[in-house]
Write the structure tokens for this entry.
Amino acid sequence: MGVRNQTQVVEFVLLGFSGIPNGHLYLFLPFLAIYLVTVLGNLMIFTVIQLGSNLHSPMYFFLSHLSCLDICISSVTVPKILVNFLYRRQTISYNQCIAQMFFFLSFSGTEALLLAGMAYDRYTAICKPLHYSRLMNTKVCVLLASAAWVGGFLDSALHTALMSRLSFCGVNLIHHIFCDLSPLINISCSDTHVNEMTIYLTSLIVGVAPFLFTVLSYVFILSSILKIRSTTGKRKAFSTCASHLIVVVIYYANGILNYDRPSAGYSLEIDTLVSTMFCIIPPMVNPLIYSLRNKEVKGALKKVLESQSKSTCHHTRN
């Protein structure tokens, strides 16, 4: 029996922006601007890393994957929000909803695992500098990145398979701005005990474990930095992991606000604000954090722009 034959609901209504029925067109332009900044910013970081010969190192290898993930996460949610704003409706079909949930969980889980891999890279660079080239060779980098992508997609595939077994008996109002796991479970008329247990167990593997690993890595990193005698050495060592640390804090702070806050005591407007911050803001600010705080990225970007400018002038003269 197909997925759609198992449910009476053929579409859902996303209530996230229902409190501002006359303001959808006013929200369209800000959300469009945020989406364009996100895509162009992350695409710029990815392109600069590929073209900049001085950026072919493990740290920037992981950063290029992070940029791809940020584009994907934003593209899973924002275009549908923009379409709904434009047509003044808040509906999404059942199949689109399940697909959106699958890809959002995949990319979010992958990002958590990738950030842990980046923390390991910073740990080896600062705590094991003499063995860095051996511990973080190309094979290890590819293995860590591949494990993050595979882990994120396997986690999402499990949740999606369990979700497809649930029925939705007439109630199709989702208190969210996109299709996420918990809001869908909350409106199902099936027994969701297995789904809830799976969420709990997988969150330990994909959420809590990478977080604890990252925290532990930075405990060792800070300990090593404090042992450096010169102030200049301390500043240089800390600057190599400052951008990653900021991104980690933003990612997990938004994740905790979105998934671990109390279920009662929050209005739909607050829920909408928190959900928007989680799925839209981090992908936009990540390239800004890395480009503004990183001299190597800014230097490589300047070289790329100068090269493009010279190339344009050359073609114009010809």
In short: Confidence is low (pLDDT under 50) at residues 1-7. The longest helix spans residues 193-227.
